[in-house]
Amino acid sequence: MIIALYPGSFDPITNGHIDIATRASKLFDKIIIGIFSTPDKRLTFSLEERVDLATRAVAHLSNIEVMPYDIITVDFARQVNAQVLVRGLRMSADYEREFEMGMLNRKLYPELELVCFMASQEYQFLSSSLMKEVASLGGNIDSLVPKHVAEALRNKGVGKE
Ligand code: ADP
User: Fold this and answer.
1) Of 9, 17, 25, 132, which is the active-site residue?
2) Cα of 52 from ligand 1 centre, angstroms
3) H-run or E-run covering 151
4) For the structural domain made of 3-122, what CATH number should be given?
5) Cβ of residue 127 lying under 6 Å from some atom of ligand 1
6) Positive/negative CA dihedral, 135, 156, 39, 5
7) Residue 94's pLDDT band (boundaries 50, 70, 90)?
8) Which atom of ligand 1 is nearest to the CA of 125?
9) pLDDT band with cut points at 50, 70 and 90 for residue 26
10) For the residues 92-101, what does the mean pLDDT come to?
11) Is 41 noted as a catalytic residue in this protein?
């Protein structure tokens, strides 16, 4: 059984993340969406909220589980017996960082194989931060996030009623 860990801050989960998780779920037996507790960025949602929003977003996919974590990603991968680390690559922006992190992770956990999925064309320019910026300026984010995520953003005062 191949378990794949898809880690990130997911603040909040977007359709771009869901696309990667869905595609990965067809390839591997089990996907764990790992939500890192304290990423080096200003967060909109608490860890509990990010876990709840992601859990609801993938509830229809039976082999995807959402779990929070607060240790380094490779150690969490070991803890959950993941053999694969899944990441998404958007245009050139993500490449250098993923390459750097991938090399470091390989040193720390050589058996963990990195599998990068190319972002789908419609989500190439979608990031949680850009989406929040669009929402805060009153833009329509209906095609970028699930309904319950748009609602959670409105409840935070991000986006129009
Ligand atoms: P991080 O804080 O590690 O950058 P994110 O929550 O922003 O985590 O994203 C998690 C993973 O999902 C990363 O590999 C990121 O490149 C990928 N990702 C984010 N947005 C998209 C998207 N629109 N399409 C494909 N992959 C994406």
Assistant:
1) 17
2) 18
3) helix 147-155
4) 3.40.50.620
5) yes
6) negative
7) confident
8) 23
9) very high
10) 87
11) yes
